[in-house]
Amino acid sequence: MAEHLEVDFAVVIVNYGSPQLLAENIDPALDASPLSTVVVVDNFHSTDSREATAQLCRDRGWLLVPSSNVGFGAGVNKGVEAAMAQGHEQFILLNPDATATSTVLGELASHVRDHPGELVSPFMDTSDGRPHFRGTQVSLATGQMRSSWSPGDQDPTWKNWLSGACLAFGAEAFERIGGFSEQYFLYWEDVDFSRLAASRGLRLELRDDLRVVHDEGGTHTERGSRAKSPLYYFYNVRGRVLFGRRHLQGRELGRWVLATPRQSWLIWLRGGRKQLVTAPRGAWAVLRGMASGLVLLARRPPREVLTSVPREEVGQR
Description:
By secondary structure, this protein is of the alpha/beta class. 41% of the residues lie in helices and 21% in strands. β6 (118-125) and β7 (131-133) form a beta hairpin.
């Protein structure tokens, strides 16, 4: 294990009301390593949660970055900036509901240290052993998602993206991308980050030899139901429209907008058809997400469509 912790890295966690998950999921071996730092960006949930998170950080020797509830992407930026200020150059995003050993984290940090022109994620499974993440692709025609991966990212329509639940990158890559977009609040910001990375000559890589446990769902499902929370639907639908606004233009953007009703319906169907009776608020959240996204679309956006950068211009060591 010590061999894997010889590389300097910071684990950046954006927390929202989950101090108990942090206490249970973060490998104590990280606390004892002089080279690794755990940075907890605490998006404000409640006074009790803030105090519990602060006490946990004191007990474990972690760096606390208190924040108002600025969302995931802005929280990541705060955490990476705090880690950079301490001299770290390798960063690993980790969700509070994900569990990774210090060995796996050290391997991810070593990967981006040795390959600074790459972003890398491990495979992720649920705690009962079911595959959870093996790479995901987004259709640039419609925004539909599928669990798949194209070696070399060569498919003209279906494009790879890496999950922010566990994602490693170096300081050079982060600065080249410009950090996470803070226009998103929840969801789609890791899709955006991945595609910006690819457009700037960085490679997206999967490590199928590394495993992380991710029990997703505790924060975005309705209790006792397959249905997702209204926030899940609102920000997923809104984020999809925003992604098109930032990455597409002309006819491609028009096709993306026309696909919005169907794709929003498919996002809602992730919670099952019964939710129309059991959790009707979700349908209203989908409609509000569409409206919010289309309002953003109507505003004149900054130029976000990016040209590729040759790989030789990305610093390789």
